[in-house]
Model the fold of this input.
Amino acid sequence: MTPIFIALIVIVIVVAVLFSIYNSLVRLRNRTKEAWADIDVQLKRRYNLIPNLVDTVKGYATHEKELLENVTKARNMAMGAQSVQEHGEAENMLTGALKSLFAVSENYPDLKASVNFLELQRELRDTEDKIQAARRFYNANVRDMNIKVETVPSNIIASMFNFKQMELFELKEEEQRAVPKVEF
Done:
């Protein structure tokens, strides 16, 4: 074998490895974007359920105006969040407002027995489960992307093509990590 032939084989192998690393970074970035889109879909579903829930409670709890306004305000803040961190903070505020709303429903036996309220509550619980699953999927993809961006040799390719670490969707405050207790 001639030295030129050996050099060509080495160059082809290096180029193939570079393409492979680049393509894996692109796949991870797109998977992470898809995961974020899944979170958005579930949050949109949640945002659409909340006005129906608030309207149902309004009929029973007319003097709980401040609580209902807080739920609506928290929903609007969550819908307007831009960054991953803003989404996390707004969603935590919305979750707290919804917990308060469900806690108040204890004072209204007719509301607790309302078919509309029970159905909305079931749908909201289902949506919350889907949001949690979507967050876990997103965070897993972010973790994989961040590992790839930080480790050798992919970090060289990542820096050449401007791949950046992504932000995890996480809870910052300890009380937000606790399992909420809502009894009906």
The chain has a mean pLDDT of 81. The two ends are 80 Å apart (CA to CA). The chain is about 80% helix and 0% strand. The first helix runs from residue 3 to 60.
